[in-house]
Specification:
By secondary structure, this protein is an alpha/beta fold. It has a single domain, classed as Phosphoglycerate mutase-like (Rossmann fold), CATH 3.40.50.1240. Helix content is 29%, strand content 16%.
Amino acid sequence: MPDERERMSPPGAEEQGRERFLWLLRHARAGEPSGTADRTRPLTTAGAADATALGRLLATGGVPLGLGSVPPPEAVISSPAVRARRTTECLVAGLGRELPVFEDTALYGAGPDAILAVVAGLDRSVRSAVVVGHNPGLYQTVMLLAGGDRAGDVRARLADGGFPPCSLAVLRIGGASWSDLAPAGAATGEHPSALVALLRPPY
């Protein structure tokens, strides 16, 4: 998978000033075979099935998940860990269409600051993108960005149920470019972020 983010730009797209949508997807369930390094842990059969099922639901336009008004993903950035890459492969297979897929080594073991730095590198013409990574960084990032009128309820739900494998959080982001993304509560209010959906398996 290439790591040339500028190739994500569809020709002639003009997205300045439009809402963007960030999909934060934790890798699906992974096994822990004896003698396997953390970075090379494979998905379990059930984990691969979860990611594929999620992709199939998204292929319907996301309506069964309450995402009918959210633009479909235009690109995926994945951690280089085997379980994240395999989750991406299963998701794309379930979607049934090609997507530009990129790896970024910064996502392996990343905290919120590193995750947001990766997102900030997205081309401004991309309106909707998936980041496939790991806990606790993804969970912390969702907690950080979950703004809007029901932010307190969202954070309570996250604290109660966590962000288990193959969980997906979809966030609406304001601003002219991805680099305008700012944590909820720390933003000036000009480019706020808000959680659109929080989904957990089974799908």
